[in-house]
Amino acid sequence: MHLCSSYLTLNCLKLYIDAACSQGVGEALHQRQIVDGEPREGVIFYISMKLKDSEARYGATQMGFLCLVWALGKLQYYLEGAVFEVYTEFTTSKSLLNVKTTNRHILRWQIAIQEYRGNITIIYKEGKSHTNADGHWIMSKATQLMTLK
Fold it and tell me: Which UniProt keywords apply (predicted)?
């Protein structure tokens, strides 16, 4: 198995982001790999975060932005300098880099992701087909693991 190590490999990394209603967010970082001469996608990381009470009250726009910014911050060492795709069920996430607003949260988030401008492609993926980073699943697995300890 060979990991994508060439700079010329396009879209090697994919980040899937999802919010589990008002409970938490889940993200999955995938990497395209060549296995037996065939390109396949493999998981590098699953991460999740329980939402604070104030975050749970965010609207769809802010929730989508929160998911994206939090994931980029947590996975910075893997994504810095890489060209990658982000798959999200939030249509508004595509506009985070370009939206004009006076909302202080959104302005702060825009500044936080400026370093990824030009390297990031945000792609909308309908919720039904967007199960790679299902927040409910990730959070339930994390709860099961904590219960086992």
Answer: Endonuclease, Hydrolase, Nuclease, Nucleotidyltransferase, RNA-directed DNA polymerase, Transferase
- Residue appearing with tokens 């910075």: 76
Summarised one tens digit per residue, pLDDT across range 34-79 is 778 888 888 888 888 888 999 989 888 888 888 889 999 999 999 9
Are 71 and 135 within 8 A, CB to CB? no
Number of neighbouring beta carbons within 10 Å of residue 5? 7
Question: What Å distances lie between residue 4 and 11, 13, 31, 67, 97, CA to CA?
Answer: 10, 9, 7, 26, 27
Strand, coil or helix: 35 = strand
Class of domain 11-148: alpha beta
Number of residues in the chain: 149
Q: Would you say residue 116 has pLDDT above 80?
A: yes
Q: Give the contacts of 35 (CB within 8 A, at least 6 positions apart).
A: 1
- Bridge partner residues of 84 (DSSP): 13, 120
Q: Round the CA-based radius of gyration of the chain to a whole number and report it.
A: 16
DSSP single-letter state for residue 41? E
